[in-house]
Predict the 3D structure of the following.
Amino acid sequence: MGSTVIEKPTVVLVHGAFHTPDCWDLVTAQLQQYQYPFRTVKLPSAGGSLATTVADDAAEIQKTTSELVASGKDVILVLHSYSGIPGTESAKGLLKKDLEAEQKLGGITSLVYISAFLVPAGDSVASFLGGMPPWIVFDGEKMTAATADHVFYNDLPKSTQTILVDKLTHQAKPSFYTPLTYPAYKEVSVSYLLCEQDNTIPFDGQKGMVGIGGPNVVSHICSAGHSPMLSMPSKVVAVIRGASGELLA
């Protein structure tokens, strides 16, 4: 008798502010090795219209996830930094448990936060932080990141930092000032990768956000800075594989 092949969930990866989807390249290369299907999402708030809000970014994420869910696919949504807010928002109506209740296949089975904003409903990046950090430079509705080498990539070699900083783009100011309205993390399993050397969201702040998530959150810790998908991609992939239900040694 032939054995039943269980289809792996599709991993949807969403980058943070100022970045582009290629920040996931080292992670997606490993996901391919482990035979996970994946998609990446390009947020319009990063490098696009300066009027972009969290709702706009959430709608862009939903274009990808709703298409997958409509075709019966299970989805793991992986969120880095800022995208924790629009990614959480985007899960509304697409959680597997809600679709199962309607006798439909597919759905978002897990949220994975990579040093990402897991905030209460009603909070934005700016309100949760109590103001904006000094390394964010404002030019009207355009935000850019100063000292990005130190803030985002402090655990990477200088030569690599230079390459990565050159790839950064602007971020639309409204995206940091529009609030979360749907706390999906209360309704689905959650994994959170805390980064001990993070200079963007301090380690204690990440621990506080894990607490906001409550009992649904399984936390993992690594020694990376803010961008473990670049400095410790194997750790990020291990967390994703664990979120899919794989039992890792």
